[in-house]
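Minutes, structural biology subgroup

Action item carried over from last meeting: produce the structure token record for Lytic murein transglycosylase (Palleronia pontilimi). EB confirmed the sequence was re-checked against the source entry. Recorded below for completeness.
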Amino acid sequence: MRLIPLAATLTLLAGVASAQPQCGGSFADFRAAMQDAAIARGVAPDTARAFFDGTRQDDATLAADRKQGVFTLPFTEFARRLISADRVTRGRANAERYADTFAAIERDYGVSRGVLLAFWAFETDYGAFQGDFNTVNSLMTLAHDCRRPELFRPQVFAALELFARGALDPDTTTGAWAGEIGMVQMLPQDIIENGVDADGNGTVDLKTSPRDALSSGGKMLQHLGWRAGEPWLEEVDVPGSMDWSLANIDTTLSPSEWAALGVTPRDGGWDADLPASLVLPQGRNGPAFIAYPNFNVFFEWNQSFTYVLTAAYFATRLEGAPVFDAGNPPPPLSGAQMRDLQQKLAARGHDVGEVDGILGAGTRSAVRAEQQRLGLPADAWPTTELLNAL
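Output recorded by EB:
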């Protein structure tokens, strides 16, 4: 895939994205409206018709969007599911096999090899399972759905741009249910902006060329704000008591300030003298990490806190970090208990978002606030004690 000038591409996408066909309702009417919007902004009518005519609503995509139960798991269980000995072994083998590619990525984009290996592993098991959803049908389905249309409509038109270049086939291109394509699962607009022909064969092939896929992922992370040469996560030990409300991704202190509070790196030394946040995914008695500024870039790739922390930790593991200390945290609430807790928090005026049983950022913040109000350790880990107190 040869990239056309980015400025021209973004101009087209911005214009098309401004059109707002109605979500919901008749899918046929929505498809026609999307096609008309593309033509009105300069896409050749034959090209638009060839792209949109065969698209259909995909119920399996909607089912996958509604069912993401794995994100209800606590960090320790989630990490143990995703990080196997086999994945560690294959990750390190791939680091050696593509050492020249990773060296070029680190030189050109500043992204450490462990980070890309972690995404490669989690997204597609190093390319083995890239998804069998029809990409265009999935994007059109999610753009038509009223839950997040503003997120997916620009991706439909980016896919149209790739089709116009001959780089995507609406009938045969497949990927993940949310429209991501290739070994590190990139959305069409990300491919347009960050696709790299690293193997020099004249095309950007994210499905069969690890060199292209990894380099494109590295460029995208740089585009998202990755800071070259800086760490992202470091495991630490925490004292038995401190102001647990400071364990907040939005609170940053210097390593010397954390040290003064009794926080110590598990390996004995701080990775960098940078602003850092204390992350306690399962409260004060569970695993503990210091997150540096690069950690926030992971959220640009995926919004799940548990996924992001697991990917960030696995990246350090692939570069030599030990297995994390799981500690002995109180057991997690059941799904029903978590939804009950979210309802109680919402009733007290907290913004927890959707009542879905997932311990997201809004729920963690609300839990911390209620723990402080009730005089409990404010470590943002919901317990039956807190639920009963509410």
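Discussion: The chain has 18 helices and six strands.
Next step: EB to file the record with the rest of the batch.
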